[in-house]
Amino acid sequence: MPEEWSTPLEIRTLRYFLAVAREENMTRAAEQLHVTQPTLSKQMKSLERELGSTLFTRRSFSIALTEEGRLLRRRAEDLVAMADRITDEFLELDDVLGGDLYLGLAESHQVRFLAREIKRLKEDCPGMRYHITSGDTEQVTEKLDKGLLDFAALVEEPDTARYEALNLPEADRWGIVTRADGELARKARVSVDDLEGLPLFCSEQSWAADLPRWAGARMAELRLEGTFRLAYNGSVFAREGLGHLLTFARLVDTGEDSGLVFRPLWPVLESPMYLIWHRQQVLSPIARRFLTQVSAALEEETTNAGRH
């Protein structure tokens, strides 16, 4: 066997595998990779032998991933992304005006604070490139734990034994998004009494961690109709009258022409936002610069608030 086939799990092999998985066609993948189709086919068969699994279901004009192939695809995407990060970070060690910054962001109006600081950093470091991943706590911390992100912004208390954290300046206020022509729209604020037995939409994470802080012993009186990770999708269902969306203020359009309104919860329920990073993580130069800038901006806001 030639030496190039002796280590099938090298990064190049995983790149080849991902190209085949993406194109679902060996010939097109080979053209994209600038290798011959027999060479690529031989590489994939060697990979299957090494792993002891069938990765593809081969058809006349296309291929599809098996369950084992889908598992490898998820793992390969992370490994290739990490390899690219390592290469980029070493190339950027002496680049004081550029580099790649990776952030995972939960849905929150406070993201505007981070966007403002990224804009300021971009003005000072024109060669900087930033990469944003959006998702809930589980999604972004998984990528942070794998080293695929520099920072994550969460709307729940972080594990301080594991992460360093900065508390962002505001807290998100909870409420419901409901149809503008509905009964709840006529209220200035809504309580557990108002929501008892009604169909409600919320993220699984918030239903388990945030809403019990508000409803307390009456949580069992609230009815979860469906779960959404993205507030926008939940607002579409609320607009159709299928239920009422529990979410933060200012996440979805509740303007005059939207057909929706936002009504805050009573008693008030708020969720602070934190910027976190691993305690043991070695930050790239551009990530350290971003952290220094955010820390200074937060200190300035605290000082200004104290003056008022």
Automatic annotation (TrEMBL):
Q: Which InterPro entries does the UniProt entry name for this protein?
A: LysR_HTH_N, LysR_subst-bd, WH-like_DNA-bd_sf, WH_DNA-bd_sf
- Alphabetically list the UniProt keywords: DNA-binding, Transcription, Transcription regulation
- Locate the HTH lysR-type domain: which residues? 9-66
- Tell me the SUPFAM superfamilies matching this sequence: Periplasmic binding protein-like II, Winged helix' DNA-binding domain
- Among the Pfam families in the record, one is LysR_substrate
Q: Any idea which GO molecular function terms this record carries? A: DNA binding; DNA-binding transcription factor activity
Q: Which GO terms describe its cellular component?
A: protein-DNA complex
Q: Which domain of life is it from?
A: Bacteria
Give the CDD domains listed for this entry.
Answer: PBP2_LTTR_substrate
The text of the family note is: Belongs to the LysR transcriptional regulatory family.
Record's protein name = Hca operon transcriptional activator
Q: Which organism is it from?
A: Arachnia propionica
Taxonomic lineage: Bacteria, Bacillati, Actinomycetota, Actinomycetes, Propionibacteriales
